[in-house]
Specification:
Layout: H1 9-17, H2 39-51, E1 56-59, H3 64-79, E2 85-87, H4 100-103, E3 110-114, H5 121-130, E4 133-137, E5 151-153, H6 169-184, H7 194-203, H8 210-225, H9 229-238, H10 245-262, H11 266-272, H12 277-308, E6 316-320, H13 328-339, E7 343-349, E8 352-358, H14 365-371, E9 378-381, E10 385-391, H15 395-407, E11 420-422, H16 431-438, E12 451-465, E13 471-477, E14 486-490, E15 502-514, E16 517-527
Parallel strand pairs: 1-2, 1-3, 3-4, 4-5, 6-7, 11-12, 14-16
Antiparallel strand pairs: 7-8, 8-10, 9-10, 12-13, 12-15, 13-14, 15-16
Helix pairs in contact: 2-6, 3-6, 3-7, 3-11, 7-8, 7-10, 9-12, 10-12, 11-12, 12-13
Length: 530
């Protein structure tokens, strides 16, 4: 399970360096958007539609990537300036993407989708019948049958020659807009959108390697200096001298996501596109309270879902009548953490089940679902996350079938990729270590912040802290021969002293800034029982 190698800073530097091949890319080395199939055709169409003064409607998605894609588009069109109608479907009344129900309220000449559309077969037919041109920009895995659209820009198309496939919806939209800028001979600086783009890449769990690493690194710099009202509010809220990818992943992304999960994603879009700080602040306050509600709803649902899961299954599939559709994705992620297996959480209403799947290790949950799509009414997604819908009466058959498919996979595929890198002696945990770790930012998917192991450490003391004393501070001596003790933080859990007074856990080292003082903070990721 764990790597018990004793590390030094030099050894750690070597191990982290191995994650990257060659030199880091510069912004100027990002492959040309023209390499995206249909991108030139799409850009020309958008430019022609603008020149002819026709109506353009954007259809986004309600997650962070979809909202970010929409915000970049809205801001770009505002700077042309050209009127763009932006619609983000409501998760509850419209369902996902450019659906027939969304089309009922659209009267336009051209529809551009962002972060959705690759599976919109029916919608494409309706557009055709109504004489609406449809440009699909997406990054999800296509099925064999593609929508009959004017243009489809998606790096995952088997015929697309874009050299780096693992980009999110906002990146596809941003790259396409770069071509539109060229077509219309505009002077818009595409770098100004990198703050929102970085948030989308991090939130959509794209691998932070290759061009994604470059864009996130540069985007976080833009976020620190941008006068975009939303970025000003984010900076005020985080109140840090340097914003990391983890700040975005843990603090900002959940708040942006909360709007679409519980109410309507337009709240998040209005936050991103606010023209003054007062309005951005007002929207952020709404996002904050929705996020609090999301946490409560999620905690209750997780508690119930854990009781429904069958731990002997390869894929955990749980379903219940009154679960909130907006939190099933997060609950699925919690089940993955608990069972160390892929999980699917379904919310049922009037005989219909809708839900989300999350994966682990090297298991492609999308492929497993796709293999059993004869039980489903819809599905879509990628390797680590997917969405699906089916009749409630088919849930048991689907559960059996997907577990049969998963049983054929190699057991190693189910091993979490969160590898513990080794044991760091207490004397090595200092400011120098923090600086070394900083060199390998941004951390995230495919470049996870290193996890270190503490094995059988003597517990000296446990202190509880926080408003309601719900967090634990555990002071340990890592090795009996060491004089130095170290302090570990366990958030959202009251840790009871074990009988043997020993602790085995893995933890990550983060920077704690308080009163202009910087120190290393050791945050427990998982406690192991032996």
């Amino acid at each position: 399970m764990c790597n018990t190698n004793i590390l030094t800073k030099q050894k750690l530097f070597e191990l982290l360096s191995q994650r990257f091949d060659g030199e880091e890319k510069k912004l100027s080395q990002i492959p040309s958007p023209s390499l995206l199939q249909d991108a030139d055709k799409a850009a020309k169409k958008i430019a022609d539609t603008i020149r002819e003064n026709k109506k353009i409607t954007l259809v986004g998605d309600y997650d962070v990537d979809g909202v970010s894609s929409s915000a970049i588009m809205v801001d770009f069109f505002r700077q042309i300036p050209y009127p763009l109608e932006a619609i983000i479907p409501n998760r509850f009344s419209d369902g996902y993407g450019v659906s027939p129900s969304v089309l009922e309220r659209i009267d336009t000449d051209l529809i551009i989708t962002v972060d959705n559309g690759i599976s919109a077969i029916e919608a494409a037919q309706i557009c055709k019948q109504r004489g609406i041109d449809l440009i699909i920009t997406d990054h999800h895995t296509p099925s064999e049958i593609l929508p009959d659209a004017y243009a489809i820009v998606d790096p995952k198309l088997s015929t697309c020659s874009y050299p780096f496939k693992e980009i999110c919806g906002a990146q596809v939209a941003w790259l396409l807009l770069g071509l539109v800028k060229k077509e219309l001979n505009l002077t818009i600086d595409m770098k100004q959108f990198l703050d929102i783009l970085a948030i989308a890449i991090i939130a959509d769990i794209m691998p932070l390697i290759d061009i994604n690493r470059t864009l996130v690194k540069e985007g976080l710099k833009v976020l620190m200096t941008s006068n975009r009202p939303a970025s000003v509010v984010i900076r005020d809220f985080l109140n840090k001298s340097i914003i990391s990818s983890e700040d975005i992943g843990f603090q900002i992304a959940p708040r942006i996501n909360a709007a679409g999960r519980l109410e309507d994603a337009s709240i998040a879009l209005e936050f991103f596109t606010a023209t003054d700080v007062h309005k951005a602040h007002k929207q952020f306050k709404k996002l904050n309270s929705l996020n609090e509600l999301r946490k409560e709803t999620e905690a209750k649902t997780t508690k119930e879902a854990l009781l429904c899961g069958n731990e002997s299954d390869h894929v955990i599939v749980v379903a219940k009548e009154d679960w909130h559709e907006g939190v099933v994705g997060i609950v699925a992620a919690r089940l993955v953490d608990h069972f160390n297996k892929p999980a699917i959480v379904l919310s049922c209403e009037n005989g219909v089940a809708k839900g989300s799947a999350r994966s682990i290790g090297n298991v492609s949950i999308y492929e497993l679902i796709k293999e059993n799509e004869n039980y489903l009414s819809k599905c879509g997604g990628h390797k680590m996350a997917a969405g699906l819908g089916l009749l409630e009466e088919n849930i048991d058959a689907f559960r059996t079938a997907i577990n049969r498919s998963a049983s054929a996979l190699h057991p190693d595929d189910f091993i979490p990729l969160e590898e513990v890198i080794g044991v760091m002696p207490s004397d090595e945990i200092d400011i120098e270590l923090l600086n070394l770790l900083d060199n390998f930012e941004p951390y995230g998917e495919a470049n996870s912040r290193p996890l270190f192991l503490i094995k059988d450490a003597d517990i000296i003391e446990i202190k509880l802290f926080g408003k309601d004393k719900s967090h634990s501070k555990i002071i340990v001596r890592q090795f009996t021969h060491e004089r130095k003790t170290i302090e570990l933080i366990l958030f959202k859990k009251v840790f009871q002293m074990p009988q043997n007074r020993k602790l085995t856990c893995n933890y990550r080292v983060t920077k704690n800034e308080f009163n202009n003082m910087v120190s290393a903070q050791l945050i427990i990721n998982k406690i192991h029982d032996y």
